[in-house]
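Please check these two lines:
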Amino acid sequence: MTDENRQPAHHKGGKDAAKKKASREPLVNPYVSGTFRAVDVTTEGRDPRHVKPRAQEDRPVSEGTNYVSLSSHDIAAKKRKPWKTALLAVGVILLVAVFAVACYAGYVVFSYHRVADNLALDIDAPTGGAVSQTLGTGSTYTITTYNVGFGAYLPDFSFFMDGGESSRAASEASCTQAVRDAATYILQQQPTIALFQELDIDADRSYHVDEYRLARSVMSAYCSDFAVNYDSAYLFYPLLEPIGASKSGLATFSSIQITNALRRSLPMQSDLSKVAELDRCYTVSRIPVTGNKELVVYNVHLIAYSKTGTIRQEQIDMLMSDISDEIAAGNYVICGGDFNSELRDANAPVDASWAEPFPRSSLPAGAHMAIDLLSDGQRAALSDSNRDAGVTWTSGDDETFMLDGFIISDNVQMADYSVLDNGFSYSDHMPVRMTFSLK
């Protein structure tokens, strides 16, 4: 190329130079003021393999640097009004809360289950001696029943479902001590047979103390059986002190060998309200009697918080039908426990809907409520076996009931019947003791 065809140096790449100059002009969004995110875009024409990205930084607009304006989303965010942001946050929180409640409700409903009916129970051997093999006719024996209230119902305890304040035992230590003291109190009575209700084996409300094992350590010379009465999901109420999950049951101790034991499931609600009700059962323990007969011992804890009397009556009818079959077979029958019905007087008006009089008309032929065999004066002299758990105990001022006792067959001779008044020291119930013989 000749010199005439060469352009002057200052004209070299004229159009490209103009573009480069234009690219160096700062880009400023006229609608937004403040700080921009700087991005160096002056690398045009350079081999990208040799270009190292420079760190982005926030700094005020200055000459010599190119900037990219905020996006439309950023602009909208800056223009959003504070009340809209707050409303959005509240909506998100409510959505999360509704989702959490729905998940919990699903958990409670789908985890609901009932313990199997006609469930054979293990017979636990004594750990501190041997037991006799049979009962005899004509000899005198003693049986006790005691609802220990999972070790929580000390005199200063009130239960939230009865209108009180608490849902759990005061502490693991107090719970352990209460159950141990209750079992020791029964052991001091030297019963032939001892029935317990509301012994927890794994429950939040009793700090996961195995109360059946604890009772066994005290009643070490007795064989025993245990049935789970209810095994509930984690119940998140009351909110400040949830009662949690509960696995609780009934225990029967005997100084005479128990040869067979069975758990029977009682009728319960069939609609969704069943998830709020505790499962119910009774146990059937068989003890040999000379003459090829058996003493059939029922340990029962009937429903307490039924909205109607229908389920209560269905439970009573099932239990009485079972007792009737054993009487017809010629066996001896004792049914003891917490009936959650007023036992003292079948005709007495009771305000508490959960403590209606036990219907004597439901008793099968050949069976009697043991307390009815006392004279009027003897019945009147008895202390009530249960206190109002909606308030703390202040002797003499609180409402009390007779909820605990025994049903016996005609071939069981009652010699004595008493409520062991321990001042509700270890539970909202007091033990009931009956001395008897077999005809």
